[in-house]
Amino acid sequence: MHLTTLCNTSLDNPTQRSKDQLIQAAIKFLDTDTICYRVEEPETLVELQKNEWDPVIEWAENRYGVEIGSSTSIMGPSIPARTHEVLANHLASYNMWALQGIEFVVTQLKSMVLTLGLTDLHLTVEQAVLLSRLEEEYQIQKWGNVEWAHDYELQELRARTAAGTLFIHLCSQSSTVKHKLLQE
Fold first, then answer.
1. What is the pLDDT of residues 41-61, one digit of tens each?
2. What's the CATH fold of domain 2-172?
3. Angle value at C-alpha 55, between 35 and 86, nearest 5 degrees
């Protein structure tokens, strides 16, 4: 169902957005990226965020040669213009269909960094979803799970993220087949 939606959206482009508009729609999430906003308390959640999110940010910074960082301020981290530029240039290497998938995944995870981790095969769908829901999972462990609500949300987010990631990979991969000539 999600793959069909992505295909139809890519075919029809109902909002008539250009490649640059799709790139900017994805990049805008960088300023409010889920894994860049940290809490100051409770200490166990602070430590959990540091242990789980910092390695992903460090990976992205090293992979793309940019500065992302994190913040406990409501204003968020101060992400340099160069970071936006480098990531926009990277996204420009994708075709329109893949960009539709990237925006879809970014919107699901509320994270450009996690989406980059998925597209580069650094993270699995399960890891990316868990990292995007880290605070919610922390609260569930503390207060308990509402099975009909939390479980459904988790499975739906996994399904959407998996479909979007698969769509990106299918739209941006190519292969060729060479037939060997048989010699008699």
1. 999 999 999 999 999 999 999
2. ATP12-like fold (1.10.3580)
3. 70
